[in-house]
Amino acid sequence: MPRTEKRIALACTLMGCASAGPAFAQYADGVSATVEIASEERRRGLSWSDGDPVLRGTLSVPVAEGLSLEGTAVSLWGDERHGGADAVLDLGAAHVRQIGGWRLSAEGRYHLFPGASGQGYGEIGAGAGFLIGPASVDLNASYAPRQSSLGGDNLYLSATVATGLPGTPLTLSARIGRSSGEVRDPVQAARLRPEGTYWDHGINVDYLMDRWFVGLRYANSSIDGPGSRHAGASLIGRVGLSL
Fold first, then answer.
1. Which domains does the chain have, with CATH numbers?
2. Whole-angstrom Cα distance, residue 217 to residue 238?
3. Is-contact 200 17, C-beta < 8 A?
């Protein structure tokens, strides 16, 4: 994979992990992993760490052509949003296929929350990506079927654009997403959708040098009522190593 495409791939991988989207395996061409420290864990516009810093590790292991096993572990330090969980483990598998100029993917993922009871939930996802000149565009959908831990079901649609800035080690990426779904238990549903259907957006700037990366991310959402705690504008810094 050319160096510029690798930079775009890592930027999309990092944004995908931060938003819990199915972007991670779309770019893997071998065993890959990252470790990083971030000032906050924010997914789909919501803080998962009560605004506190986190440690994050990711791993993708190819097991067959186009098929990879994936895992992400993030410290949450007793996060209230997920019942006082100490961490979240995202475990699953993804299949990626290149058809012409399109990169298609499908995945299944389960989220475990050590330190909390009855918080785990599963979701499935699909995505399509393509290149427009130096930019990579990805369209993704993730769906969590009706589960008691979510108080209903949850659908997340997102679009991500990433491009390397010519002549620099910088990569710029941006994402917009929409969360919606059925509500059966308003208290449980507020966990992922504090005020029902909402939009979120984010912009990343990543400095990539060999295996090291430093990033700055702006994240925000349309939530502005009583459920807006840790859902408003946030500037998140991170530093990590790609293995």
1. 3-242 (2.40.160.40)
2. 8
3. no
